Amino acid sequence: MYGVLLAISSGHFINDTLQAVVPAMFPIVERSLGLSYTQIGWIAFALNMTSSLLQPVFGYYADIKSRPFLLPLGMVSSLLGLIGFALSNNFIFLLLSVLFIGFGSAIFHPEGSRVAYLAAGNKRGLAQSIYQVGGNTGQSLAPIITAFIFVPLGQEGALLFTLAAGIGIIVLVRVSQWYKKRLAGEDVFSKKRQNQKKKAYNGIHKKIKIAMLLVVFLVFARSWYGAGISNYYQFYLIEDYGLTIREAQLYIFTFMFAGVLGTFFGGPLADKFGKRNIIFLSMLGSAPLTLLLPYLPLDVVIPVFFLIGFILSSSFSVTVVYAQELLPQKIGMVSGLTVGLAFGMGAVGSVLFGSLADLYSIRFVMILCSFLPLVGVLTWLLPKDKEIRNYHAM
Question: Disulfide check for 129: which of 256, 259, 317, 375 has CB 3.0–4.6 Å away?
C-alpha cells in the first residue's frame, strides 16, 4: 500500500511542481514582457481551464476502460509545455505553452486518483491525503522557485525543471506497470460494472445528486480563494506593504506549506471524526481569519496566513474521498470533478480578479476574496457519512 502511494504521490509532486512554475513566473514576466494583471489572469485561466475541463472527461473514460500508461504520457505533455514556456517571448506563445502543461495535468490526475483509491484498502482518507500532499507540496514550491531560481536566472530558469519531468516519467512508468498488473490480476472493475448495472436500474438517489452538486460548488468557492491568494497576494504585498519580489515569496510559501500540512492531517482526522464534519470546520473555521487578513499589520500576517492555509486545506483530500463515496461507481469522473473541474474553476476567478485589480486595486481583490470561505456554511446541507450508505442501500 505505502510503496505505491508514495510513488504516485511523488509523481503528483513532480506534476504539480511543473504547474507551479507558471504562477511562479508571474512576477518575472509581468515586468520583462510588460504584462497587465488581466493578461496574467488569462495565463492562469488557460492553465487551469485546460486541466479542469478535461479531467472529468479523462476520468469518465477511465471508468469505462483504464489506461495505466496515460500517467507518463501526461508528464511528457507537461515537459513539452515547460520547454515552450521557458523559451516564449510573447503573450501568445506563453498561452500556447501552458495549454500543454494543463493538458498533461488533465491526463494525470484522474488516473492518479484511481491508483490511490486502489491502493487505499480501508484507509481511504489517509491514502488520499498521501496522494494529495504530493501535489500540494509541489504547488507550495512556487514562491521558492520564484525567489531562488527565476529572480536570479529569469524565464530560462524553467528549463532546469526538465530534469524533474524526466524523473517523473520514469517513476510513473513504474506505477503504470503496477497499475496494469493490479487490473489484470483482479476482477475488481468487472464486479463494479455489475453493481453499476444494478444501481442504474434504480437510479442515483436524488439527495446524492444534490450533495454532489453542492460539493462541487464548495470546492469551487475554495479554489477561488486559493486562486486569489496564490496569483495576486504577492502583488498586494509588493504594492501595499512595499516588499520586494523575493520577500513576498516567503509569505506565499507559508500559506502553501501550511496547506500541505493541512492536507496531510485532514484525511486521518476525517477517518476518525467524519468527512462532512471536517469539511464544515475547514471552511467556516478559516473564515474569521480570512476576513481579518487584508487589514492586518505585516508583523502578524505570517502566523495568520499559516493558520488559514492549514485550516482551509484540511478538507482538500477529504472532499475528494467524500465525493468518491457519494458516487463509488464513478471514481475517475468524480475525482476529475473535485480535483479538476471544480478546483480548476478557480481559473475563472483568476481572470475576474485580474480585471478587478486593473479596474480598482489589488487591495479591493483581497477584500473580496476574504468573504469566500463563508460559503462553507452550506456544508451543513450535505448528508452525514452514515446517511450516504443508507441512500446507496435504497
Answer: 317
CB 175 within 8 A of CB 69: no
- Alpha carbons 368 and 238: distance in angstroms, whole number: 18
List, in sequence order, every beta strand (DSSP E) within the chain: none
Helix (H/G/I), strand (E/B), else coil: 215: helix
CB 263 within 8 A of CB 133: yes
User: How many CB atoms within 10 Å of residue 59?
Assistant: 27
Q: In which residue are the cell numbers 460494472 written?
A: 193
* Helix and strand totals (H; E) in the chain: 19, 0
Q: Is the pLDDT of residue 391 over 80?
A: no
Per-residue pLDDT, 200: 44
- One fold for 1-186 and 204-393: yes
CATH number for domain 204-393, candidates 1.20.1250.20, 3.40.190.10, 1.10.760.10, 1.20.272.10: 1.20.1250.20
Q: What span, in angstroms and rounded, lies between the C-alpha atoms of 365 and 387?
A: 39
CA distance 96 to 386: 46
Q: Give dist(CA 134, CA 179) in Å, integer.
A: 19
| pLDDT (tens digit per residue) in 368-387 | 999 999 998 888 888 887 77
Q: Are 3 and 129 in contact (CB under 8 A)?
A: no
| Cα distance between the two ends of the chain | 32
Residue spans per domain, the chain = 1-186, 204-393
Question: For the whole model, what pTM was predicted?
Answer: 0.71
CA separation for the pair 28, 13 (Å, rounded):
23
* CA neighbor of 366 nearest in space, from 185, 273, 229: 229
What pLDDT score does 347 carry?
64
CA distance 217 to 235: 27
Side chain identity at residue 301, one-letter code: V
Neighbour tally for 154: CB within 10 Å: 14
The CATH architecture annotation of domain 1-186 reads: Up-down Bundle (1.20)
- Phi-psi map region of 361: left, alpha, beta (phi>0 left; psi -120 to 50 alpha): beta
CB 5 within 8 A of CB 178: no
In one letter, which amino acid is 69? F
Whole-angstrom Cα distance, residue 25 to residue 14?
Answer: 17
